[in-house]
Design goal:
The structure holds 2 protein chains of 2 kinds.
Chain A: E1 4-7, E2 10-13, E3 19-25, E4 31-38, E5 42-51, E6 54-57, E7 64-66, E8 76-78, E9 87-94, E10 102-103, E11 107-111
Parallel strand pairs in A: 2-11
Antiparallel strand pairs in A: 1-3, 3-8, 4-5, 4-9, 5-6, 7-8, 9-10, 9-11
Chain B: E1 4-7, E2 10-14, E3 19-25, E4 30-38, E5 45-50, E6 56-59, E7 62-66, E8 70-75, E9 84-92, E10 100-101, E11 105-110
Parallel strand pairs in B: 2-11
Antiparallel strand pairs in B: 1-3, 3-8, 4-5, 4-9, 6-7, 7-8, 9-10, 9-11
The chains are: A mainly beta, B mainly beta.
Chain lengths: 112, 111
């Protein structure tokens, strides 16, 4: 079992460029989410999904888009990268309910 | 105001020196409280889930406890390999099942 797979692991973007961070899980989990982690700020929720075709905003959604066309995949799109989006991004998945979340290894993004 | 507050932000211990990490929460109704461990450069890894006051869970040198307003992660006779950031997260009754995280406690255990 691969669990939660994120690609790429590292990325450098120029201001204004767009890109998609990929997240895939092979555990048939209904819930998927994207967090960003900045020094001293902990994990902050960007967007989440409770099933295919259903997404919602988290605490810091501005500048990011998501879609969930399949149970397995939950890509995060940066529309026009800004230096403030420099961060480490984590994707997580879980079964519905109070089950624990499984995290990917993260994508370290630098916007210059 | 943060829903989840962890203290201390950082903790340095000598090997064998027991201590506790604190996680206080302000949600009106708790559905579940989670503890995770995060090693540098990696994603968080699940440790425990607690659901109701008085509940305790143990794993090796770690024991998590829960009251109505806070949770403690007790570390007994820690070893250098226990060095990591420990994250606390809560699910609120009536909210989504996506947990809200605290900022974490960075633990360093010196040999």
């Amino acid at each position: 079992n691969a669990g939660v797979t994120q690609t790429p692991k590292f990325q450098v973007l120029k201001t204004g460029q767009s890109m998609t961070l990929q997240c895939a899980q092979d555990m048939n989990h209904e819930y998927m989410s994207w967090y960003r982690q900045d020094p001293g700020m902990g994990l902050r929720l960007i967007h989440y999904s409770v099933g295919a075709g259903i997404t919602d905003q988290g605490e810091v959604p501005n500048g990011y888009n998501v879609s969930r066309s399949t149970t397995e995949d939950f890509p995060l799109r940066l529309l026009s990268a800004a230096p403030s989006q420099t961060s480490v991004y984590f994707c997580a998945s879980s079964y519905a309910g109070t089950a624990e979340a499984f995290f990917g290894q993260g994508t370290r993004l630098t916007v210059v | 105001e943060d829903q989840v507050t962890q203290s201390p932000e950082a903790l340095r211990l000598q090997e064998g020196e027991s201590s506790s990490l604190n996680c206080s929460y302000t949600v009106s109704g708790l559905r579940g409280l989670f503890w995770y461990r995060q090693d540098p450069g990696k994603g968080p890894e699940f440790l425990f889930t607690l659901y109701s006051a008085g509940e305790e869970k143990e794993k090796e040198r770690l024991k998590a406890t829960l009251t109505k307003k806070e949770s403690f992660l007790h570390i007994t006779a820690p070893k250098p390999e226990d060095s990591a950031t420990y994250l606390c997260a809560v699910q609120e009754v009536g909210g989504s099942y996506i947990p809200t995280f605290g900022r974490g406690t960075s633990l360093i255990v010196h040999p």
